UniProtKB/TrEMBL annotation:
Keywords: Cytoplasm, Nucleus, Plant defense. SUPFAM superfamilies: alpha/beta-Hydrolases (SSF53474). One of its GO terms (cellular component) is nucleus. This is (wild Malaysian banana) hypothetical protein. One of its GO terms (biological process) is systemic acquired resistance, salicylic acid mediated signaling pathway.
Amino acid sequence: MLCDDGRMALIPLCCSLSMAAHLSPSSPFLRHDNSAPSAAIFAFRASWSADDWLLAGTGSPFGEREIDAALFPWIKSVGNDTTAAVNGAFLRSFKKVLDTSRLQAEVHAAVADKKQIVFTGHSSGGSIAVLAAIWFLEQRQNFEGRGGQVDPFCVTFGSPLVGDGVFVHALQRENWARFFLHFVMAADIIPRCLLAPLSSFKDELEAILGFLCPKPLLFSPNTVMSSPVTYYRNVLGHALSVSNHQACLLMGCTNPLLEVLTGFVKLTPYRPVGAYVLCSRDGRLLCLRNSNSILHMLFYLFQDVPGADVEEVAHRSLEAHRLYEAMTRDHLNVQNILSVDSSDSIPLTFTNGFDDKAQPVKTLLKDLDLCPLAFQSLEARLCLRAAAEWEKQRLRNQAKIDDNYSKIKEALSFLSDYRATCEVRGLGYYDTFKLQKDVEDFNANVKRLELAGLWDEIVEMLSRYELPDGFEGRQEWVKLGTQYRWLVEPLDIANYYRHSKNEDTGPYMVKGRPRRYRYTQRWLEHAERSPAGTCTESCFWASVEELCIDTGDGKPFLELRSRVVELEREVLRWVTKGSLGRDVFVSESTFARWWVTLPRQHRADSCIARFVNGEDMLETMEASI
C-alpha cells in the first residue's frame, strides 16, 4: 500500500501548499494546520538560483559533501563507519532555515498538539523537506516526550535527489525510508538534474531555473530557448551512464573495463530513497520502492521516441515540472497506482503467452512509453529484474548467515564454559589462554579460529552491502556480536602479544585489531545511541599490554599517568556495568602484576583500589617482584 487513506487525502493539499510556498518571500516555509485528518503541514520554498543547487568548493562536480554529523548522527554506514554524502547546497539551505526561522519551535508546538507532522515541497523545496524530515526523525526522542510516538510524513513533487548510496542505506537500516513519498513526472528533467555534473552546466541550469521560477523578473521566455536542448542531452547521457553502470554491478559484471571507465566518466553519487510514484502523461502512476529500480526508471522514462523533435522534447521536460498540481488534483487515485516491487511482476516478454499477472505492467509500461522500442523495452525490464533479484540475493545471503547463528551460539557457550574453568584454575581467562599450557587452551584456540571465519564472512558481506540494510540493526545479532566481542577479543589480544606481533605490526589497537570487532562494537554503540569509542571494554587487555611494555621500557610514571588514570576510570565503569569480569583482578593476572608496580600513593588514591587484592597482598607481591 502506498500510504494510508489519511495521508493520501493530504497529498493534493501538500502539492498546493508547495506551490504557494514559492510565492511567500517572507518565510522559507509555510505552515498549514489541517483539521481532518489532524496535521501540521510544513511546505518549503524552492530556490531558483543555481548557487542554491551547487555548493562551490566541495571538490566534486556534483556538489556533494559529508552530511553534518551533529545534526544527522545516524545517517552513516554503521559497520563500515562511512558518513553519508548529501548535496551541499541543499544542506546549507536547510541549516539556514533551521537556524534563522521558527521551524523548530513550530514543529515542537505541533507535536505537543498531537498533530501528524508533514514535510513537503516542490522542486528544491522538496529536497529541503527531505532533510527536515530526517532531522525530525533524528530528534524524535526529544519530541516524543511531549506528544507520544510521532511518525512524520514527507511528500515531494519533482524534487532533485538528495543523498548518496550510504544515505539510502542509513534510511533503510533505520526503517525511515517508509516515511518518504516522491512524485515524479515521466518527462520532468529536474528530478534527474543531479545525475549530471552541475558544475559543467551551471549557466544552463541558471537559465532553466529562471524559466521555471513562478515570478520571473530577469528572464524572458526566449532566454531558455538555447539552453534546454544542451542540458537535456547532458542529463540524458549521464543518466544512461549511471543506469548502465549500476546494471553491470547488479548483474555481477567482472569486466575490468568497468572500473577503468569510471575513472574517465564521473558518475553521480546520488541515489533515490523512499517510495517513488512515476507519472505518465495520461495520469497512470507506477510506484517503486527499490532504489536501484527507481534509478533505472528515471533514465528509461526520460527517453523519447526516436525522430521526435529534440527541442520540443527538451521544452516538454521543463513544462512537466509545472504539472504536479494538476496531476494530484485530476489523477491521484489509488486505482491508478500500480506497484512493482518484485521481479515476478516484471515480464521479460510481451508475447501472448506471458502470465496474466503481468497484464497491468504491460499496459502501464506502454503508457509510460517503454514499449514502442522493443530493444529499449527489454533492456529496461532486464534492469528492473536485476534490481529486484539483487534484493532477493541479499535476503538469501542473510538466510545463510542466520543459519550460522546457532553454530556461533554453541561455540560461544563452549568458550563461556572454558572461561569458568580458567577462573577455577586461579589465573584468569586472559592469562590462562595466553600461556597455552593445557589441551583445554588448545581447544579454545580452535573455537576462536572457527568463530573468526564465521564473523569475517559476515563482515565481508557487510562491507560490500551484500546483506539487507537492516541487518546491523537486528537486536539478536547486536546482542550476539557483543557477546562474541566480550568473550573472544581478549583471546585474540592474548594470541597477538603471545606471538609478539606488536613488534612487527605495532600496537594491537592501531594495526592489529580485526574488522569483526570494530563492526560489532559499532553495532552496540549504534543500538545504544552511544558516542563512538564508548564500548571498548573488550580491548581492555590491549591497553594493559601496551602499558606493561612502556613501563618495562622505563618510561616514567608521570609520562604514563594520564593513560593509567583513563584506563582505571574505564575499568570502574566496565566492572560496574558488568561488561568486564572480575577475574582481571586475580593476584597473578597480567593486570594485577602490572598495577602493583605503580607508585603507592597513586594506588591508594585509585578509583579501582577496592577491586584489587588488599594492601597486605599487594605488599607481598611487591616483595616478590
